[in-house]
Specification:
The chain is about 70% helix and about 5% strand. It is mainly α. It has one domain. The chain has a two-stranded antiparallel ribbon with strand order 1-2. Helix 3 runs antiparallel to helix 4. The longest helix has about 35 residues. It is elongated, with a radius of gyration of 18 Å.
Amino acid sequence: MTNDASLEFCHGWLNRVPEYLGLVALGTLVAITYQGAVALPERIPVHFGLSGAPDGWGPKLMLYVLAGIVAVTYVGMTLVQRQSRKFNYPVKATDENRARLQMITVGLIRWLKAEIAALFAYLQGVVVQVGTGQAVGLSPAVMVGFMAALLGTVAVFTVWMVRAK
């Protein structure tokens, strides 16, 4: 992808897409947390092994802890993206490329926020489903997919930054 294409992707309406997706994922997380608080017993699955089966149990309060951690992380990443002039980049930032690097990095943070919020909404949904007996565990394939998406996002944006020099 050329520098112009990456800048177009990180600017304009496309720049707002991950923000909207992230907010939808946060709203979904809140709805799932509420549903779980009503439907779950006092002991819920809080950890899953490599096979996807639950191997750790804890109090229902952990639903709120997970949702709170995600919310704080989302807000923290939003605050960080507003400090783009203080970022470190994988290439030397010059007066010529600094604006492009900042735009690309803010786009990276926006997509990571959306992906992380979606990941944890999925995890919270699995906790509720397993805790209510509607499912037996976490899908390792879905988890691999989320990890691939996160790493792929970082890789794509890093390439754009390297090309922006």
